[in-house]
């Protein structure tokens, strides 16, 4: 093997060597970084079937902790236990229709009755000069 | 994968064991218009020989004898207890006479304009008002003033045409009429005055009485377009009717 041929062979060997190392490294990294596959899809077995107590068990919750995502429903109330444990949290806000500090527009209910006519006024057809 | 499943099972079993396997449910509990009128009786007034008064109104619930001069024993005329429209009879008092103030000089709501007469103080009930209606024909402005607080409000008006001018002089309010039809030529209210037209002896079945009233021709406001009456916007005549009492002085100049 001549000198140039040997150099070329070394270069080619180095390139293939680095490529093989890269493929191997990427495969290993993917294997560690990829999420664990869904159990049901992989093997068709639900862990709840194997140990039902896991899924039926209600974790104790702290009622004072607003971050606690536990279902506040009583047992037997609403959907089956656990069915909505991870449903999006909803907040109900009651918006008062009236400001309780605001003075009522018509506290005496005067608007409900026709306005009083002027004192001494009489109903009549005038015949003034117009 | 089976290893994963087994790990989950083991972890669940350990967790259940740590909590005793019990389910612990938690309890979660979620115009200013001033009072214009007061009433007094005649014998409450200070006696005097001649006292000019302003804002004094004599009212009666019965037919009222009007005398031509102080001391007359026979009345010159008798005014009905009510006007032809059914309003309570009132007269504007312009003076008191007699050592005990027993005679009242009053403006009469009859022709000719400015007619005066005398009534016995004992025949009437006296009221007073601090309000005055001023009609400025040149400016075509009507103002309502209170003796204590000044001008309450003012408005542009329509006045009599050159052929049928609005008469001038000192008058007073005799009637507050509810027309019952806001779209009528008089608007919702028509206020009768003690004044009469100098050119029309009769109008619409009446004797040519002058009034202040609303209108269904608001474009005429600001013009000399009426037969002698004073036209004001309908909202103003409503305010006026609810502000000024019978007997309120009306000065037209």
Q: How big is the Rg of chain A?
A: 41 Å
The major beta sheet of chain A can be summarized as: none
Give start-end ranges of low-pLDDT stretches of chain A.
Answer: 70-88, 90-98
Average pLDDT level of chain B:
85
List the total number of helices of chain B: 2
**Morphology call of chain A:** elongated
How many beta strands in the DSSP annotation of chain B?
18
Name the beta content range of chain B: 35-45%
Describe the protein in words:
The complex is a heterodimer of chains A (130) and B (253). Chain A is mostly helical. Helices cover 35% and strands 2% of the residues of chain A. Chain A contains 4 helices and 1 strand; from the N terminus they run H-H-H-H-E. Mean pLDDT of chain A is 61; it is low at 70-88 and 90-98. By secondary structure, chain B is mostly beta strands. Chain B is 10% helix and 39% strand. Chain B has 2 helices and 18 strands. Chain B has an 8-stranded mixed β-sheet with strand order 11-10-9-18-13-14-15-17, covered by helices on one side. Chain B has a 6-stranded antiparallel β-sheet with strand order 1-8-2-5-6-7, with no helix packed on it. The radius of gyration of chain B is 35 Å and the shape is globular. Chain B starts with a helix and ends with a strand. The chains are: A mainly alpha (130), B mainly beta (253). The interface between A and B is large, with 36 and 55 residues.
Layout of helices and strands:
The complex is a heterodimer of chains A (130) and B (253).
Chain A lengths: L2 H31 L5 H5 L3 H4 L1 H5 L65 E2 L7
Chain B lengths: L1 H17 L18 E4 L9 E11 L3 E3 L10 E3 L9 E9 L5 E5 L8 E5 L4 E5 L1 E6 L4 E6 L3 E7 L2 E2 L8 E10 L10 E8 L12 E5 L10 E3 L3 E2 L2 H8 L7 E4 L1
Parallel strand pairs in B: 9-18, 12-16, 15-17
Antiparallel strand pairs in B: 1-8, 2-5, 2-8, 3-4, 5-6, 6-7, 9-10, 10-11, 13-14, 13-18, 14-15
